[in-house]
Design a protein that fits this description.
Length: 311
């Protein structure tokens, strides 16, 4: 009698254990079911939540910016996914890794025929660079500028949502987070008005100003190399290729395209193909890649006809 009682109790216990295990598995499955679109909104809420806590803890800016760039990346993938699920993969056959932010832009433009403005592309490239720097390198930032940069990227994500998903990202935020964005934008608008007054009073025309890489306003005075909305200061350097003045941070290293020889661990530059500055602006890079490729082909051809074989 006692034995059968314990046997019965054991069965009950194992029945409950199985029931709890099933519940846990179901809960886990539910968690995984977050799609790209919901995931983007989730990251946006987390990003703004970090921004609201950054007054007390400056480190939160890092997570606010990383999360808002993630929102942008996921929303691009969602758009590609709606066209065809394989488009979110770098290699659509093997489907190991998903596409990068810059590859997403190329696919959205070429396959979906949705164009980004030059300003949008530049802002996305800057956001991607900043995110990578925050994850992989040392970096320094001014909290006020981090806030401006964050609002700038949130606006970019919001515009993308309205244009492509007919949904305002701002409405998808929890109420106190929405208030934070609205209030911060009002504060920035006051700074913009103040800068406009300064430019009028001092006769600083639009031709003497650049769009600021941090706050995205036409408030960066080229002569002073300073923004009058967010106080960002950055050196302007002439791109060797197009001779246009560019922000130092926008120039890309092109030394990966050069020819090197190596002895052991020592690498020696053999040919810079006429690009001794080893940096260029984003607009020039595709032309430079093309030119170096042509120079390489010509070099290989002449070496071959001179009987020296291919290099
Ligand atoms: Zn600025
Ligand atoms: Zn250039």
């Amino acid at each position: 009698m006692i034995e059968s009682f314990f046997g019965f109790k054991q069965k009950i216990n194992s029945f409950y254990a199985l029931h709890i295990l099933k519940e846990l598995m179901n809960n886990d499955l539910e968690k995984i079911k977050l799609n790209l679109y919901d995931n983007a909104i989730c990251f946006a809420n987390e990003a703004v939540s970090c921004a609201t806590r950054a007054n007390e803890n400056k480190q939160k800016w890092k997570f606010a910016i990383i999360n808002i760039v993630q929102t942008i990346e996921l929303s691009f993938k969602e758009l590609l996914f709606r066209e065809h699920f394989t488009l979110i993969y770098y290699d659509i056959i093997n489907r190991d890794n998903t596409v990068s932010l810059s590859d997403s832009i190329k696919r959205i433009e070429s396959i979906l025929n949705i164009k980004f403005s030059d300003k949008e592309k530049l802002n996305i490239s800057r956001a991607q660079k900043l995110r990578n720097k925050m994850i992989h390198n040392e970096f320094e930032f001014h909290p006020k500028q981090a806030q401006m940069h964050f609002i700038n990227m949130f606006s970019l994500a919001n515009f993308f949502f309205i244009k492509n998903f007919q949904c305002n990202l701002l409405d998808q935020l929890d109420s106190p987070l929405r208030d934070y964005i609205v209030e911060t934008k009002e504060m920035i608008n006051k700074l913009i008005e103040g800068a406009k007054t300064y430019f009028n009073e001092n006769n600083i025309s639009i031709t003497e100003r650049f769009v600021c890489p941090i706050c995205s306003n036409s408030s960066f005075v080229t002569e002073e190399q300073k923004c009058y909305v967010c106080s960002h200061e950055e050196e302007l350097i002439e791109c060797q290729s197009c001779k246009e003045l560019c922000f130092e941070g926008d120039l890309e290293d092109i030394s990966r395209l050069f020819e090197y020889s190596n002895e052991g661990r020592q690498y020696k530059l053999e040919n810079d193909f006429g690009y001794s500055d080893s940096v260029a602006c984003l607009d020039c890079i595709p032309h430079i890649e093309e030119d170096i490729e042509k120079q390489r082909d010509d070099l290989a051809y002449y070496t071959e006809v001179n009987g020296l074989g291919k290099y």
